[in-house]
Specification:
By secondary structure, this protein is α/β, with parallel strands linked by helices. The protein has 10 helices and 12 strands.
Length: 285
């Protein structure tokens, strides 16, 4: 794996090393340990995860997450095919459609879109979007920690799947199930596109005592949860699921809003994981 950093056309820095913490940042992380969420409350958060996300979408509707117009820039796999080739795309954890609808707007007429989410309310927002087209989209509720997905999508039927800011909200004990689910639904040669929160992202450093569930796993004010990954954790997770690692790196960027005086350094992890064309696991699925 390459060790030098690469700067993208929009100024994002792709790098294979953890952020160096200042003494103040180390102290912030240490202070988080002064009050850890009790196991009983952590278990309750797990049981009520769907309810918390449904309330989140009731409160924020479609206004919280921005549409992801950056995906075709970051993931060339979305555009590297013949325009008349039919592509089956699956958005795992679609929220209100922040990834699929920008692709529709960009004219991806040869795509058939599957999209699923934990939250029934989020699914209804997708279906009520003016760009929703039942002839080329199937949107449904599914819990990625179960096999719900295969009630609506056949195994080995998807060319491209995405897992964008989703795995971090799922309990670490279930990650291997989610990775295996993605592997199973993809065709041999299919690709999983991934982005999520990276270790020592500013959002992680800002948590106060009383929000930490476990190492690098936190509860937000609204009861939803978030984990902050290292690239090594993800490489291990997806390799063990059977994927070839095409890309796996940190992305450092700044979120700037001059009007509101915001200039925040962010750290994400970004990956592309390919299902091998010939693989023993593939043969015995």
């Amino acid at each position: 794996m390459e060790t030098d950093e690469h700067i993208g056309e929009n100024g994002d820095v792709f790098v294979h090393r953890l952020k160096d913490l200042t003494e103040d940042e180390k102290q912030r992380l240490a202070q988080q340990n002064s009050r850890i969420i009790p196991e009983s409350k952590a278990a309750k958060l797990e049981r009520e995860a769907k309810r918390h996300w449904d309330i989140f979408y009731k409160r924020n509707e479609t206004k919280f997450f921005r549409d992801r117009h950056w995906t075709t820039r970051e993931f060339q796999e979305l555009i590297n095919f013949d325009s008349d080739q039919r592509i089956v795309f699956l958005e795992l954890g679609c929220g209100v459609g922040n990834m699929i609808f920008p692709l529709v707007e960009e004219g991806f007429k040869n795509f058939f879109f599957y999209a699923c989410d934990f939250s029934p309310r989020a699914v209804e927002f997708v279906k009520s979007n003016k760009l929703f087209d039942e002839s080329r989209m199937k949107v449904f509720c599914a819990d990625l920690t179960t096999d719900d997905l295969f009630e609506n999508v056949q195994p080995r039927s998807v060319d491209i799947a995405s897992l964008i800011f989703v795995l971090s909200a799922i309990h670490p004990s279930m990650w291997s199930h989610v990775a295996s689910l993605a592997f199973k639904v993809l065709k041999p040669g299919g690709v999983l596109l991934f982005r999520d929160y990276g270790r020592y992202d500013m959002a992680q450093l800002r948590f106060k005592p009383g929000h930490k569930i476990a190492d690098n796993f936190y509860m937000r004010q609204d009861g939803t949860r978030s984990y902050y990954f290292t690239e090594e954790e993800l490489a291990k997770l997806f390799s063990e699921a059977g994927f070839e690692i095409i890309m796996n790196t940190y992305v450092q960027r700044r979120t700037v809003n001059f009007k509101e005086g915001i200039d925040v350094p962010r750290i994400f992890v970004q990956g592309k994981y390919k299902k091998p064309v010939v693989n023993d696991a593939d043969i015995h699925e």
